[in-house]
């Protein structure tokens, strides 16, 4: 059964009057009718907000400056722990003094991330990778969804396959022009108010397709596990090979399937060649050159994926890796597509080790900070520095728009949800 869930987070679990659902704090005296504490927040647009009186309906719109937000990608391991650390059924496991849950790190991380997204200093965009991994867990899928939507700041990465296709087309343009590949802007791969403010109203749509999505995600996971196991076994049989050898093998040419004329990106490539008026009899040779071109092999969503697989294979060849799980493929998909557009990512220790290997070989030229549970103090310090650098002016403006209450960590997210 499909459903649409519209929620306005008042950050309190007490019942509210109907008028307070639409006109929320902070309240002030109405400049139109003079009613005390009746002039509240009606809506927030990316670059303005509107206040309205609960008594006379008089309204006033005020402009908001554009903001710059740090983008932080949370892998599913982080999403799961951040959700559980504030959920009533699990939070006792995440208190200070429990080394198995990093000694209270996760509640502190949630508080800092929640505050930063309400200050519009940082956001943790959601993605189809989050959704695919979450629907596989029928017990926790709604809890996980609530968390990654809440911290997203109304931002969402486009699907990794879309990002890859888009980068391939950019590579083709660079190849035809004889120029180096250029990554492009964040706005090319993220939907939502990148430089704008967000409303307190969040609409979440459930089309009732979760079981079908879970079935498809399970098939993807099974296929991925089969391929990764074959790669793992092959690498184990080649103990003399290191990361560089695997990397050079995997990146010798670009993604061959991109030239399939019946794939979406293949069709787009042919249209581009039509626009450039490339003669039909010259296209096969041109595309063969494009396949081994530096522009195509530099596509981040492809190259980074191959480098991650090379690091995985090097671990297997060196006897350091463990047999792969299908969920590992989701991590590789997310990191390879999103990392170049992020300021920081929080991943598991295995992925961080692979990324360190890649960086040690100068194969990861993107400036994102990489954190794992081995860097809990560093991650919290990074978040604190983001808030400090934003300055008191950002905090004061956020208080003017939303009120001081909304800047407090919303650790009662699940109590609030279940009370509505």
Quick structural summary:
The chain is an alpha/beta fold and 420 residues long. The chain is 49% helix and 12% strand. Helix 3 runs parallel beside helix 15 (376-402) and helix 8 (243-250) runs antiparallel to helix 12 (300-317).
Could you characterize what this model shows?
This protein is of the alpha/beta class. Helix content is 49%, strand content 12%. It has helices at residues 18-22, 76-86, 105-118, 128-135, 141-150, 160-177, 210-236, 243-250, 264-275, 280-291, 294-297, 300-317, 327-338, 349-360, 376-402, 413-419, and strands at 3-8, 24-28, 39-45, 48-53, 59-63, 70-74, 122-123, 156-157, 190-191, 201-206, 344-346, 369-371. A 4-stranded antiparallel sheet has the order 2-3-4-5. The chain has a 4-stranded parallel sheet with strand order 7-6-11-12. A hairpin with a 2-residue loop joins strand 3 (39-45) and strand 4 (48-53). Helix 2 (76-86) packs across helix 5 and helix 8 packs antiparallel against helix 12 (300-317). The longest helix is centred in the middle third of the chain and has 27 residues, at 210-236. It is globular.
């Amino acid at each position: 059964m499909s459903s649409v869930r519209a929620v306005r987070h008042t950050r309190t679990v007490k019942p509210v009057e109907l008028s307070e659902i639409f006109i929320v704090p902070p309240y002030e005296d109405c400049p139109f009718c003079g009613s005390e504490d009746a002039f509240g927040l009606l809506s927030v647009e990316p670059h303005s907000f509107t206040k309205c009186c609960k008594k006379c309906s008089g309204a006033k719109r005020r402009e908001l400056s554009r903001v710059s937000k740090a983008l932080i990608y949370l892998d599913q391991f982080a999403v799961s722990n951040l959700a559980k650390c504030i959920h009533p059924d699990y939070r006792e496991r995440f208190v200070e003094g429990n080394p198995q849950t990093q000694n209270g790190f996760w509640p502190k991380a949630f508080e800092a991330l929640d505050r930063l997204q309400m200050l519009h200093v940082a956001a943790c965009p959601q993605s189809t990778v989050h959704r695919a991994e979450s629907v596989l867990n029928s017990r926790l899928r709604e809890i996980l969804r609530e968390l990654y939507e809440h911290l997203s700041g109304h931002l969402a990465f486009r699907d990794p396959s879309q990002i890859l296709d888009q980068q391939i087309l950019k590579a083709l343009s660079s190849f035809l022009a004889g120029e180096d590949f250029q990554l492009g802007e964040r706005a090319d791969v993220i939907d939502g108010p990148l430089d704008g403010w967000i409303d307190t109203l969040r609409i979440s749509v459930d089309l009732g397709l979760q079981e079908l999505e879970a079935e498809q995600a399970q098939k993807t996971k099974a296929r991925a596990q089969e391929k990764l196991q074959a790669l793992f076994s092959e690498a184990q049989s080649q103990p003399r090979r290191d990361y560089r050898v695997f990397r050079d093998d995997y990146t010798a040419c670009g993604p061959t399937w991109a030239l399939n004329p019946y794939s979406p990106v293949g069709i787009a490539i042919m249209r581009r060649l039509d626009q450039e008026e490339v003669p039909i009899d010259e296209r096969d040779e041109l595309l063969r050159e494009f396949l081994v071109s530096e522009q195509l092999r530099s596509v981040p969503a492809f190259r980074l994926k191959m480098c991650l697989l090379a690091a995985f294979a090097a671990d297997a060849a060196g006897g350091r890796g463990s047999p792969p799980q299908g969920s590992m493929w989701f991590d590789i998909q997310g990191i390879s597509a999103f990392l170049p557009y992020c300021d920081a990512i929080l991943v598991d220790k295995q992925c961080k080790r692979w990324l360190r290997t890649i960086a040690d070989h100068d194969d990861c030229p993107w400036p994102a900070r990489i954190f794992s549970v081995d860097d809990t103090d560093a991650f919290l310090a990074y978040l604190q520095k983001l808030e400090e650098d934003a300055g008191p002016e950002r905090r004061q403006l956020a208080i003017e728009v939303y009120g001081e209450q909304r800047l407090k960590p919303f650790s009662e997210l699940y109590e609030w949800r279940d009370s509505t």
